[in-house]
Amino acid sequence: MVQKDYFQEFEKLLAQAKDLNAKIKDMQEGLSSILVENAELKIENDNLRNKLNNKNSAKANDDVSQAHQNLEKLYSQGYHVCTPMYGSHRKDNEECAFCLGIIYGRSDNKSKVN
Ligand SMILES: [Zn+2]
To answer: For an engineered disulfide with 71, which of 4, 67, 78, 81 has Cβ 3.0 to 4.6 Å away?
Structure first.
């Protein structure tokens, strides 16, 4: 009688262990596919972020070159674009080292960056 109880208990535990094992395998497969999906999403997110950053910096470059062109145009029309005399007229179109520094200094920096 006591031996039979042991046998039944053993069978029961064995069935539970098999069941548990199957559940663990299921979870393992689920986890694997979640990890793969997570890795793919991370890569996709990085790619999208890079694209967005490139787009933003391209726009910033456009803005900078537009502002730079405006300064060059103002200077060629005979106005100072330098900080100390901004907007005042250049007498007899005299060259101004500050203005040239701003116009061509920036352009040099820009070409170095690029
Ligand atoms: Zn000037």
So the answer is: 81
Give 114 Cα–ligand 1 centroid separation in angstroms.
27
- Cα of 106 to ligand 1 centre, how many Å? 15
Domain that holds residue 89: 2-113
28 pLDDT above the threshold of 60? yes
What is the CA(91)–ligand 1 centre distance, in A?
11
Domain count for the chain: 1
Query: 34-71 pLDDT, tens per residue?
Result: 999 999 999 999 999 999 988 888 888 888 888 888 88
Distance 95 CA to ligand 1 centre (A): 8
CA pair distance 86, 70, nearest whole angstrom: 13
Q: What is the pTM of this model?
A: 0.46
Q: What is the DSSP letter of 46?
A: H
